[in-house]
Amino acid sequence: MRISINANRCQPSPMRKFHPYAQEAKRQGKKIYHLNIGQPDLPTPQAYYDAIRSFDAPTLEYEASPGMPKLIDAIRRYYQTLDVYLDPRDILITTGGSEALLLTLLSILDPYTEVIIPEPYYPNYTTFVNSAGGFIRALPTNPWEGYRYADRERIESLITPNTRAILITNPGNPTGVVLSQDEMRMIADIAKKHNLFLICDEVYREFCYDDKFGVPTMAKYRDIDENLVIIDSVSKRFSACGARVGCVVTRNQELQQALVKFCQSRLSVATIDQLGAAALYDVDPSFFKESKAEYKLRRDTVVSCLRQIPGVVVEEPMGAFYVMASLPVDDADKFQYWLLENFDVDGETVMFAPGAPFYETPGKGVREVRIAYVLKCEELERAIELLAEGIARYQKEVMKVGSIETK
Ligand SMILES: Cc1ncc(COP(=O)(O)O)c(C=O)c1O
User: Fold this and answer.
1) Mean pLDDT on 69-75
2) What residues does ligand 1 touch, defined as CB less than 6 Å away?
């Protein structure tokens, strides 16, 4: 028997591989500050719970494969508030943004075709692209340039006859980069000129900390209707990761027909989850305002604490709830194991996501980490204090140096 080439090309999630070590540290009584997973901690709106409790059909039936009409309608109304007018057939409900990505890539990639993705990127993209037999063409960026990637020449230089799509995350995970209107327009123009799909993962759309960005979406550019695929989700927007509801938004009906075949094979997204998600779209817009204000405070706290650690390179992220930082350690992966196994201050330690798996290019990101600021400000302050103490001790005990600087 043989495991498939596509499965063998996939790696375990970098966010989850430390789990057994974290469990062991907890068993020993250590408290861990989790900065490693983008799991928002703000309460999910009550409307979600009310809606699922109100479900009283005698039989729990499958929903329609493309999604529950009530939810599709709710999503259309939400997009109208962004000045985007969609037909019901432009929206396909999926099990989270994750399934939206997987089905999109299965629908547009053939073996050995390529997707251009700015790196560092959300590591599950590798699994989705590999599942479809494709390859990632990484668009390199650097911490000292704030991970910005919107450069026409750099993007166009990566396009080959095998390129099928450009995949961007806006706002970005893990970098927090938010594209300006001009940059969005320029990337849209490239996709149009070269006849490529533009997959725009906008699951963090509401989390832009400078008002000049508004609530950005590529869906406003009507001249790229055939190219554009929006990946969307209730997970981050409504602090509802466990709802497992997302969608693909595309006006390209040929692509919709391809997607729906995959949707039909998995029959439907969970009926009750869709009912709950539909109710989320009715929550008062003040919910977004309040959660954004809270995350902005957290971002400011994390960045100012990180800047006090000698040798740390960090740019202020403009969106999402992550920050990439370069640490003055030899290997962030090794450092994370050490923090769990050999370090604590008063029984407390900290977890982050090591940077290398966010890159396609070998050797990149070894000293970088992604920090998810999904804890309250006081906890974040303590977590970064632990990180600072951990770095100092690790440098002395493991690296055997006083302190080192990274570029
Ligand atoms: C950039 C990005 N896209 C998609 C997802 C998938 O989220 P979900 O499947 O919960 O919608 C995540 C989750 O962290 C993400 O960070």
Assistant:
1) 98
2) 38, 96-98, 122, 169, 173, 201, 203, 233, 235, 241, 246
